[in-house]
Prior knowledge:
There is one protein chain. By secondary structure, the protein is of the alpha+beta class. Helices cover 24% and strands 31% of the residues. The chain contains nine helices and 22 strands. The chain has helices at residues 2-14, 133-144, 151-167, 195-202, 232-236, 265-274, 307-314, 345-353, 358-365; strands at residues 22-27, 35-42, 45-49, 52-57, 62-68, 71-76, 82-84, 87-91, 97-103, 108-113, 115-121, 124-132, 179-180, 207-210, 221-222, 258-264, 297-300, 303-306, 321-326, 329-335, 343-344, 370-373. The protein has a seven-stranded mixed sheet with strand order 4-3-8-11-12-1-13. Strands 7-6-5-2-9-10 form a six-stranded antiparallel sheet, with no helix packed on it. Strands 16-20-19 form a three-stranded antiparallel sheet. Helix 2 (133-144) crosses helix 4 and helix 3 (151-167) crosses helix 9 (358-365). The longest helix is centred in the middle third of the chain and has 17 residues, at 151-167. It starts with a helix and ends in an 8-residue tail after the last strand. Residues 224-225, 248, 251, 344, 347 line the site of one zinc ion (ZN). One zinc ion binds next to loops.
Amino acid sequence: MVRLRILFIIILTALCIIVSAQVRVRLFSNQTPESAIFSVTEGTYEITADNREILTVLKDESVLIAGFNGKLTVKTRNAKGFVCDSLTLSAKTGNDSFSLRIIGILILKQYYTGDLKCYPDLGTLVFVNITDIERYIPGVVMAEGGNGKNLEYFKAQAIIARTYMYKYFDKHITDNYNVCDNTHCQAFNGVSSDTLCDRATRETRGLVILDKDNILIISAFHSNCGGETSSSYDVWLISQPYLKRVTDPYCLFSRNAIWQKSISVSEWISYLRKSGYNDKVDDPSGFNFVQETRLADYKTGFFIIPLRTIRSDLNLRSTFFSVYSKGDSLLLKGRGYGHGVGLCQEGAMVMAGQGLNYREIIDFYYSGVNISDIKNAVALH
Ligand SMILES: [Zn+2]
Ligand SMILES: [Zn+2]
């Protein structure tokens, strides 16, 4: 058994990640597009339908793609329309970009680089963008990074986004793409239009966060920790040495530092009853509960329920809240926004504003990690 384990570790260290330069991202993955307009904004694209080259699309020209009876109908302005099973639009000049406009209840138009594949699937159209990783990352930083207009903060976010992407590169492998463009993977609303996000990505090219065994970390982050981050165990029951609690003095005065919610005593009782609470209630002050530092469970009398369950059932901003009875109501006074694990974005923005660099920011929130090139990561996810 021990020998097997050693052998496994040796094989593991020998196998390094085969680093891909491109990522396949499903676009508009939380919509169900039935038709779309593809327009070339730079360069030239070539259309291949069912593996046959059909025609070339030049700058400012458009292609209408629509689903029809489980197939695609494709129409350009100057050529005859045709029907096919799948379509590839390939970039030809090396400096090519396009917009994709989904026609539906909302008209959504976003800009991309690289190639686009399209095929029908269960009444919707699947669009997969095959693009350079270093063009994808700044788009993620822009979509996920919030309003922290600071280079060092964006560098930390770029490294986090790159780490996450490589760690979950196979998340949708059975669907023939790597990641989707919504928060199930990472939000990506097309290429970045922010020069600071572009620069932050360029200046951290290839960098990821590894644990002490050179395994990509779970690069969790959230909006505001309320002064103390959560351990991954308290939130997900997964223990990671680099996702421990950290006391965070930086985010205490930021936008999402505190919240309040009032809830009637009867509502609270009926919620707790559904979760198994069956004590007789004489005095609502028995529901009072104080979190000076983060706790894992809410307790009233002998009844215990995980705070993460309350947060998700009642859609609260965080689990870091205290309860105070006030007449017929209970006041929930909370701190922070999000699950609290890993990097606190608003704290990181303040750190960057105070002149700390991306390494200091990452080291502060993830204990004992290394920032290294992706080539140094071992294959284990
Ligand atoms: Zn996904
Ligand atoms: Zn914080």
